[in-house]
Write a structure and sequence with these properties.
13% strand; 387 residues; Rossmann fold; five-stranded parallel β-sheet; 41% helix; alpha/beta
C-alpha cells in the first residue's frame, strides 16, 4: 500500500450510547461497535494516529453493554499494531486522562493499558488539575485533527464546536444510538443540509454535500462497505489550512523576491512535506464571503497555522499578524534578509530568508526554523481565573 494521506493525521472518535435500550437497540449498538472496531483497524493500517480518553467503562443497565467507545478504540489499536506502516509516526495515540483515570481503568483492560502506556506509541496528556469534562475535551480538541462522532449528547456537541472553531473537520455519523435531536444525530441532520455541509468539513474531490449523502447509509450497507466509504471520505478531506500573510502588491519593489520565496521554498515544503494547504486571499481565488476583509479574517480565524511574511512592512500584514498572535494561532514569522521591522516584532524570532544561494540551502534554512518554532508557546499564554 502506498503512503496514505491519513498518515500522521490525528483522529478522535467520540460519542456514547443512550442508556435506554428502547432508544438504542442492541442490534444498532452492535452494528456501531463493529463499525468502530473495523474503522480503527483500517486507520491504523494507513498510518493514522489517534486521540483517545482514558476513563472508566460505564455499562448500560438494560444489557450491560458499554456506553462509550473509548476502550473499544484502545483494544482495536492494540490488536492491529502489527499492521502499522514501517514509517508510522509516534506517538500513535495521545491519551487524555484525569486524576481518577488510573484507578478507573477496567480490570479487563489493565494489561492492555499497561502495555501501551509504557511504550513509545502512547503519549499521556494529563489534565488532572481540571475536574470537569469541558476542560478534558479542550485538551482532546487541541491534540486532534479530525473528529468523528456517533451517538452522544451535549458533550459531543461541545466537542464538535471546539473542533469547528479551530477549523478542523467534524464528521457526524447517523447510527441510531440516541434520540434524533441529540448529539451526532443532531449534527448529522444539520450536515445533510447543503447550506451547512461545508461548515463540517471540506474535501478535495466532488463536494462535501455529496460525501454527506454517501455516508447516509441505508440498512442494506454492510459494515465493511460503511468502513470503506468512511475511509474514502477521510482521505478526500482537505489538508489542514496554513493561512498566508504576505505582500500582495505586484508593483512593490520587494514583490518579485517574496513571490519567488513562496513559490520555490514555502509552498513545496508546507504542502508537499508538511501536509498543509496554503490559503492565500488575494482576490483571485473563489470568494465565499461578500467582503474581502470578511474573506480574510474568516479564513485566518479557522486556520491551523499562520505563515506571516512582513517583507515590505505593509499595514494590513501587521493587522493580520496581530490577529493571529492574539488568537494564539501557531505562527511562523518570516522576512527578507535586510528588511526593517518594528521593535515589537524584532523580539519575536523569525526566519530572515535570503534571495541568494542554492535553492536547497534556502529550503533547509526554512526546515530548520520550522523545527525550532513549531511548538513555540503562544505570545500571550492562556491565564484562566480558576485552575
Amino acid at each position: 500500500m502506498s503512503k496514505s494521506v491519513l498518515s500522521g493525521r490525528r483522529i478522535q472518535i467520540a460519542g456514547s450510547i443512550a442508556a435506554d435500550c428502547n432508544v438504542a437497540s442492541a442490534e444498532e449498538v452492535n452494528l456501531a461497535r463493529e463499525f468502530v472496531g473495523k474503522l480503527v483497524a483500517a486507520l491504523v493500517k494507513r498510518g493514522a494516529t489517534f486521540v483517545v480518553p482514558v476513563d472508566a467503562e460505564k455499562l448500560r443497565d438494560c444489557d450491560s453493554s458499554p456506553i462509550c467507545f473509548d476502550w473499544l478504540v484502545w483494544q482495536s489499536i492494540r490488536d492491529n499494531l502489527s499492521q502499522r506502516p514501517p514509517d508510522g509516526k509516534n506517538p500513535l495515540v495521545i491519551a487524555v486522562q484525569h486524576h481518577k483515570s488510573e484507578r478507573q481503568v477496567p480490570a479487563e483492560f489493565a494489561e492492555l493499558w499497561e502495555e501501551l502506556r509504557n511504550s513509545d506509541a502512547v503519549s499521556i496528556e494529563n489534565v488532572s488539575h481540571w475536574n470537569m469534562n469541558s476542560k478534558r475535551m479542550e485538551a482532546q480538541a487541541k491534540e486532534g485533527d479530525i473528529l468523528i462522532t456517533l451517538g452522544g449528547s451535549e458533550g459531543v456537541l461541545f466537542l464538535a464546536n471546539l473542533y469547528h472553531e479551530a477549523g478542523k473537520p467534524v464528521i457526524p455519523l447517523n447510527f441510531a444510538l440516541t434520540k434524533d435531536n441529540e448529539g451526532s444525530l443532531r449534527l448529522f441532520s444539520m450536515g445533510m443540509s447543503s447550506a451547512n455541509t461545508d461548515r463540517f468539513f471540506r474535501v478535495t474531490t466532488s463536494n462535501a454535500h455529496t460525501w454527506m449523502n454517501r455516508i447516509n447509509w441505508s440498512t442494506a450497507k454492510s459494515t465493511d462497505q460503511r468502513v470503506a466509504s468512511m475511509v474514502d471520505l477521510l482521505e478526500a478531506l482537505e489538508h489542514p489550512h496554513a493561512f498566508v500573510v504576505r505582500l500582495m502588491n505586484p508593483r512593490h519593489s520587494d514583490y518579485p523576491d517574496v513571490e519567488t520565496f513562496f513559490n520555490e521554498v514555502v509552498r513545496p515544503i508546507m504542502e508537499n512535506e508538511l501536509g498543509y494547504k496554503l490559503v492565500v486571499v488575494d482576490g483571485a481565488q473563489e470568494f465565499e464571503y461578500a467582503r474581502m476583509d470578511q474573506e480574510i479574517f474568516e479564513k485566518l480565524h479557522r486556520s491551523s497555522f499562520v505563515l506571516a511574511d512582513i517583507t515590505g512592512a505593509r499595514p494590513n500584514c501587521f493587522i493580520e499578524l496581530g490577529y493571529a498572535l492574539g488568537r494564539r494561532l501557531p505562527t511562523m514569522l518570516t522576512v527578507k534578509e535586510g528588511s526593517a521591522h518594528p521593535f515589537d516584532i524584532f523580539s519575536v524570532a523569525g526566519l530572515h530568508w535570503k534571495t541568494t544561494g542554492a535553492l536547497e540551502e534556502r529550503k533547509e534554512a526554512f526546515r530548520k526554523h520550522w523545527e525550532a518554532i513549531k511548538n513555540r508557546p503562544t505570545l500571550v499564554p492562556a491565564d484562566p481565573l480558576v485552575w
